[in-house]
Each structure stands twice: as C-alpha cells, then as structure tokens.
C-alpha cells in the first residue's frame, strides 16, 4: 500500500513551482520592465516641473469666553432683569465649539468670502475672479459663449446671480472645502482654532484666509449681539422721545410763567397750566434718568458681547510652500511604470494560457 502525500504539501510545492515559473517569466522580460520604469521616471520628473507648488496660509484665533469677567456686570444684569428690563445678556451658545468650526466650512460663508474684494495688479477684483484666473478657467471658457461673459464683481448680492453663477460658485466651494480648507483644533487640550487654506496661488491663500475670518467674525458678532443691539436701539429711541417731551415741558413751563407774570395772586386758575407743565417736567425727568442708566448699561452689555473672536497669528508672506520634488517624481514615476508593466505582462500571460 502506497503512502499518500498530504494535499497541503502538494499545494505548497505547486505554489512554489508556480512562483518560480512566474519569476523566471518576469526576469526574462527585464528589459521591458526597466524601460517602462525609465519612462515612468521621466514622466514623474516632467510632472515635477509642471506641477505648481502649494502655498498654505495659517491663521489661529481664540474664542472669547463670555462668562469671563462678568462679576459686577452679571450682578447689574440680574438687577436689571428683576426690574423688568431685558438687556440681552448671554447671547447663547449656537456657534461655539464644533458648531463654530462648521460655520467656517459652510457654503454660505465660503461663497460670501469668494465675493470679497482684493487688489491684484492695481485692480480691485473678487477672490472668485482671482481663483478663476489662477485655475485657468477663463482660458477654457473662451470658446463657450455661456461662460465667456460670466463675471463675479466684488460684494455682489447673491440675488443678482444666475443659475450659472451659482453653479460655478458651487464648484469653487467643493474644491476649496475638500482640498484647500482645513479648520480645527491642532491640540484638543488648547481652545485655539487654526484655519489652513492651501492653493497654488500664494496671495489667494493669504487673502482668502483673512477674508473668511472677517466674514465669519462679522456674522458671529451680529448673531450673538443681535438681542442686545435691538434692546439698546429701543432704549435709545425711548430716551430720545422722552428727552423731546422733557424739552417741550420745560418750554411749556417757561411760557406759562410768562403768561402769569404779575398776575393777581387771587387768580389761581390762570396758574394751573404752569403747575401741570411742572408735573410733566418732574415725571419726564425721572423717566429720562432711568432710561439713560439703562441705555448705558445696554451699551456695556453690547461691548461685552462684541469682541468674540481674537486673532492670534495671521498668515505672513512668504507662506509655507510644498513642492512636488524631482527625486520624488522620478522614484514614484519609476515605481508606477514598473508596476503597471508587470501587471500588464501577467494579465497578458494569463489570457494566453486561458485561450490555449
């Protein structure tokens, strides 16, 4: 009775034999593989020359803690609230933490930033136009009448844009948000947020970063201080109204006194208008005094909530530049060229074996 060899041992031998066969086959094709690697390396070298460097602008900022420094002011706000005055203290926390980070990456903020004006070659243009020129889109649109006349003027309202404008801005937003815009905390232990904007245009990276922070900061300040600003506006209007009433009452007292000058003391009825005007003066004076105090307190509250974003570091020229190196291009191109030709040779041999 013959002893059978285990199947796994046979499979291992067959595997080793097949590997040797394939190795011998690829070794016989070494000239083609080396030639493909050289061609790939040359392509990689050429790519390193035509590939534009990437410039990264970095800006860091800290979000002000609205609870800090609120001792005396918090007591004053509490007292005002107990008296029935809503001065808008505490703007809420809608745009704090991760919500604020997402606000920087939102389409509304990015597209509004793209419409910000910048100066290039002595001309005032929008960042969107600067991006179009840098990406070479204008040259591609020369033969297309639909896009040839498209323009993005600085600070143009979105309601004046056509569907084509919106589509182009949407493409810009997609490219910037996926490739060029990074917002987040580099260290989770530190509450400092960094913004990195990368592009092939050094000035665009710098201008866009600064404009984006300004747009978000203005929107953030307006949203957070809206309630306090509305209350202050109401108080100022009421103060102006009472002041006009008080001035009129003072004038009325003077006129009434002039009319009763040298009047017989027994004729008290003629003195009634002066007395009524005097009451109006006293009442309006008391109301005006209280309104002035509340208006000043509302101004303090508004000032407290206004400086919400404190910029720490701004992008400074020259920016950090990242190049696609020549050595990297040669090595990467050579590797890809060799790998692709080996894959093609293997597939071609397998196809021949299947067709035999």
Description:
The chain is of the alpha+beta class. The chain contains 13 helices and 7 strands. It has helices at residues 7-28, 30-50, 71-82, 98-104, 107-114, 127-135, 137-140, 145-148, 163-180, 202-224, 226-259, 272-305, 326-355; strands spanning 54-63, 117-120, 123-126, 181-184, 192-199, 309-313, 320-322. Strands 1, 4, 5, 6 and 7 form a 5-stranded antiparallel sheet that branches. Strands 2-3 form a two-stranded antiparallel sheet. α5 (107-114) crosses α10.
β-strand amount:
5-15%
The stretches of 5 or more residues where confidence is low (pLDDT under 50) are: 67-92
Tell me about the biggest sheet? Answer: 5 strands, antiparallel
Taking all Cα atoms into account, the compactness measure Rg is: 38 Å
User: What value does the average pLDDT take?
Assistant: 78
Q: How many strand elements?
A: 7
N- to C-terminal separation?
Answer: 38 Å
Structurally, the number of domains stands at: 3
């Amino acid at each position: 009775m013959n002893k059978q060899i285990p199947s796994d041992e046979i499979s291992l031998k067959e595997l080793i034999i097949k590997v040797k066969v394939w190795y011998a086959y690829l070794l016989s094709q070494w000239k083609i593989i080396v030639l493909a690697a050289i061609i790939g390396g040359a392509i990689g070298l050429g790519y390193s020359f035509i590939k534009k460097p990437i410039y990264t602008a970095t800006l860091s900022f800290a979000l002000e803690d609205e609870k800090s420094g609120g001792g005396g002011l918090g007591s004053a706000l509490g007292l005002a609230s107990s008296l029935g005055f809503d001065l808008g203290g505490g703007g809420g926390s809608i745009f704090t933490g991760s919500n604020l980070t997402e606000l920087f990456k939102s389409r509304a903020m990015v597209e509004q930033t793209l419409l910000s004006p910048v100066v290039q070659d002595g001309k005032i243009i929008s960042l969107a136009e600067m991006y179009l020129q840098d990406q070479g889109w204008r040259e591609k649109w020369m033969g297309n009448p639909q896009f040839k006349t498209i323009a993005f003027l600085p600070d143009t309202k979105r309601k004046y844009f056509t569907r084509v404008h919106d589509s182009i801005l949407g493409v810009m937003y997609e490219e910037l948000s996926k490739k060029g815009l990074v917002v987040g905390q580099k260290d989770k232990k530190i509450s400092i947020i960094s913004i990195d904007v990368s592009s092939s245009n050094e000035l665009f990276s710098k201008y866009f970063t600064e404009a984006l922070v300004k747009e978000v900061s203005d929107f953030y300040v307006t949203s957070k201080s809206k309630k306090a600003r509305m209350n202050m506006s109401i108080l100022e209007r009421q103060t102006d109204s009472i002041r006009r009433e008080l001035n009129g009452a003072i004038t009325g007292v003077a006129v009434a006194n002039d009319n009763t000058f040298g009047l017989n003391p027994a004729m008290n009825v003629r003195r009634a208008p002066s007395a009524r005007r005097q009451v109006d003066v006293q009442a309006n004076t008391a109301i005006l005094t209280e309104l002035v105090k509340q208006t000043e307190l509302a101004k303090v509250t508004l000032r407290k909530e206004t400086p919400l974003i404190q910029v720490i570091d701004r992008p400074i020229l020259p920016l950090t530049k990242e190049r696609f190196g020549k050595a990297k291009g040669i090595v990467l191109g050579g590797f890809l060229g060799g790998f692709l030709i080996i894959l093609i040779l293997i597939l071609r041999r397998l196809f021949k074996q299947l067709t035999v």
